[in-house]
Amino acid sequence: xxxxxxxxxxxxxxxxxxxxxxxxxxxxxxxxxxxxxxxxxxxxxxxxxxxxxxxxxxxxxxxxxxxxxxxxxxxxxxxxxxxxxxxxxxxxxxxxxxxxxxxxxxxxxxxxxxxxxxxxxxxxxxxxxxxxxxxxxxxxxxxxxxxxxxxxxxxxxxxxxxxxxxxxxxxxxxxxxxxxxxx
Length: 183
Prior knowledge:
The chain contains 7 helices and 4 strands.
């Protein structure tokens, strides 16, 4: 190995002014161990912050879903029944009950999404979601404040087996636009 031969020349390299040659190997090792311990504490703090964030993020309901729940089920929300409490209440009633709750919240969440998209596409209109959760004809109404022109939109989350039902609804209400997504 050639590096062994260079050891003598390395010892001749001048040391910096900040170098203190009076550190023994034990003292150097002790200082390095202290730095390593500090690094471990810093790393532990960083990791615990990341883990804490993940726990809070996965245990909390996103704001959009909470707003959808509050809008879809205003009496329960105003009565202090949280989405989680409602879920626990209906869990033992079976899958159909849970599915109904989930679909109601998903549907309202989708209405919020469609309302936002419509507001971006038609900035001259003011779009509002119906106060009635099961409005039979439209879910979102857009009004042009200058002309009074209205756009009615029905929002549907359907399965492919429900397409015939949607077709009939569309024929019955030809002046309504439809925003649809398949589940």
